[in-house]
C-alpha cells in the first residue's frame, strides 16, 4: 500500500502466471506451451520484416494489423470485419470484459476455469457469479439458462481439459440472445471443433483464439477474436482508447506466417495429441485418475498421493507441473504435454516417487 496508489489498485488481486524459472535443463510442463518450435516460416517472415538494417523499426506498425486480420479471415472463412487482434489473447479478453461483459447483471463463468476471468472482473468492476461444474467437471448448458450480463468459458475448459460440443454451445447461445457468450478456444486445436462456424448464425457469439499454444508462439504475444462486426467494433473502440499499436511489426509478420503454414500446424498438433494419449495411458497405469482431455495438457489426480507433495517431489527432480491450491481441484496436477522424451522422463520420475 502507498498513498500514491489509486483506490482500485489496493483492491486488486492480480493474476499469478505459471513460473518461468531461469534454471537450465528443466522439464517445464507447467504453462501449456507447445514443446515444438514454430514454423520456420515464422523466422523467415520476421527476418524479412526486419530487413538488413532493421530500418522499418523506425516506423509504427499498422495499427489495424490488416494483414493479420486478413490471414485469420482466410483461415476461418470469415471477413476481416469479423476479426479483432490483440497482444496475446489475454489482452483480447481484457478488452472483452470492458467492452462486452460490463453490464448491470453479473456475468457467469464456471467455478473451475481460467483464473484470469475474476481478475479482469476486479480490474473493470464487473460483477460475476460462478457456476459449479458437474461432479465429472463437465459444463452443463442447463446451468447457463439464468439471467446474466454475459457468459464466458474456455472450451476445452482450463485447467480441466474437458470439451463441450458445438450443439451444447448453441443451446447456450439460443437461451441467451441478449447476452454476449464468449468461448475462449485457447486449446481447441488439440481436440475440439471451433465455434467460429456459428458466428454467422449468432450475433451474440464471440470466439477467442491464441497463437500461444497450437502455433508455438507464446513468446510473440498474439491472440484474436471472431464475431459479429458490432462486437468487433466494441473491441476496437476500447483498444483505440488504450493502445493504438498493441501488435508490433515482428509479431504481425510472424503471426501471418504461422497461420498460413497449415502443414507445420497439422504435424505439430497431431504430435501433441499422440503424446497426450500415450501420457494418459501411462499415468493411468501408475494409478492416476485422468480427466478426458481435448487440450495440450492433462488434469490428473492420484487417489493415494497428495498433489502438492507430488508436485514438490517432481520439482526436486527438475520437472515442474502446475498445482492449484483451490477448492475442488487441490488434489489435481495439471501437466502440459511435452515431447515424448519429456513425458517419458515425467512418468519415470513418478514411478520412482510412487515407489
Ligand atoms: C483458457 C486460456 N485463455 C487464454 C489464455 C491466454 O493466452 P495468451 O495470452 O498467451 O494468448 C490462456 C493461457 O494460458 C488460457 O489458458
Would you give an account of this structure?
- By secondary structure, this protein is an alpha/beta fold.
- Helix content is 37%, strand content 14%.
- The protein has eleven helices and twelve strands.
- The chain has helices spanning 7-11, 40-50, 66-76, 88-100, 116-124, 166-175, 229-239, 249-260, 262-285, 307-316, 340-354; strands spanning 27-29, 83-86, 107-110, 128-131, 151-154, 181-184, 205-210, 223-227, 289-290, 297-301, 319-321, 332-336.
- The strands form four sheets. Strands 2-8-7-6-5 form a five-stranded mixed β-sheet, with helices on both faces. It has a three-stranded antiparallel β-sheet with strand order 9-10-12. A two-stranded parallel sheet has the order 1-11.
- Helix 5 links the parallel strand 3 and strand 4 (128-131).
- It is globular.
- The mean pLDDT is 97.
- Pyridoxal-5'-phosphate is lined by residues 32, 88-90, 114, 154, 158, 184, 186, 210, 212, 218, 223.
How many whole angstroms does the radius of gyration measure? 21 Å
Q: Determine the strand fraction and express it as a percent band.
A: 5-15%
How are the strands of the biggest sheet laid out side by side?
2-8-7-6-5
Number of helices: 11
The secondary-structure class comes to: alpha/beta
Which of globular, elongated, flat, extended, rod-shaped describes the shape? globular
Q: How far is the first residue's CA from the last residue's CA?
A: 47 Å
Average pLDDT works out at 97
Largest sheet: 5 strands, mixed
Amino acid at each position: 500500500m502507498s498513498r500514491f496508489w489509486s483506490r482500485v489498485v489496493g483492491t486488486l488481486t492480480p493474476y499469478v502466471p505459471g513460473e518461468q524459472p531461469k534454471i537450465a535443463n528443466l522439464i517445464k510442463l507447467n504453462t501449456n506451451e507447445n514443446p515444438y518450435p514454430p514454423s520456420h516460416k515464422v523466422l523467415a517472415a520476421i527476418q524479412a520484416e526486419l530487413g538488413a538494417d532493421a530500418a522499418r523499426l523506425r516506423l509504427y506498425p499498422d495499427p489495424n494489423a490488416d494483414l493479420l486480420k486478413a490471414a485469420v479471415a482466410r483461415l476461418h472463412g470469415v471477413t476481416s470485419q469479423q476479426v479483432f487482434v490483440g497482444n496475446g489473447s489475454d489482452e483480447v479478453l481484457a478488452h472483452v470484459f470492458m467492452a462486452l461483459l460490463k453490464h448491470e447483471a453479473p456475468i457467469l463463468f464456471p467455478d473451475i476455469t481460467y483464473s484470469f476471468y475474476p481478475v479482469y472482473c476486479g480490474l473493470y468492476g464487473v460483477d460475476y457469479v460462478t457456476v459449479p461444474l458437474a461432479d465429472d467437471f463437465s459444463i452443463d448448458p442447463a446451468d447457463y439458462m439464468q439471467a446474466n450480463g454475459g457468459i464466458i468459458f474456455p472450451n476445452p475448459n482450463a485447467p480441466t481439459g474437458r470439451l463441450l460440443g458445438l450443439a451444447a454451445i448453441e443451446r447456450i447461445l439460443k437461451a441467451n440472445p441478449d447476452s454476449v457468450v464468449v468461448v475462449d478456444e485457447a486449446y481447441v486445436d488439440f481436440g475440439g471443433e471451433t465455434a467460429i462456424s456459428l458466428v454467422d448464425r449468432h450475433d451474440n457469439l464471440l470466439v477467442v483464439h491464441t497463437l500461444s499454444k497450437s502455433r508455438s508462439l507464446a513468446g510473440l504475444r498474439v491472440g484474436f477474436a471472431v464475431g459479429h462486426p458490432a462486437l468487433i467494433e466494441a473491441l476496437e473502440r476500447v483498444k483505440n482508447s488504450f493502445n493504438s499499436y498493441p501488435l508490433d511489426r515482428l509479431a504481425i509478420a510472424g503471426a501471418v506466417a504461422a497461420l498460413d503454414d497449415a502443414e507445420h500446424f497439422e504435424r505439430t498438433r497431431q504430435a501433441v495429441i499422440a503424446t497426450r494419449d500415450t501420457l494418459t495411458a501411462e499415468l493411468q497405469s501408475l494409478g492416476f485418475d485422468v480427466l478426458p482431455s481435448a487440450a495440450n495438457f492433462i488434469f490428473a489426480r492420484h487417489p493415494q498421493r497428495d498433489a502438492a507433495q507430488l508436485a514438490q517431489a517432481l520439482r526436486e527432480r527438475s520437472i515442474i507441473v502446475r498445482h492449484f491450491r483451490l477448492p475442488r481441484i487441490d488434489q489435481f496436477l495439471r501437466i502440459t504435454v511435452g515431447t515424448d522424451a519429456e513425458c517419458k522422463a515425467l512418468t519415470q520420475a513418478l514411478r520412482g516417487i510412487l515407489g
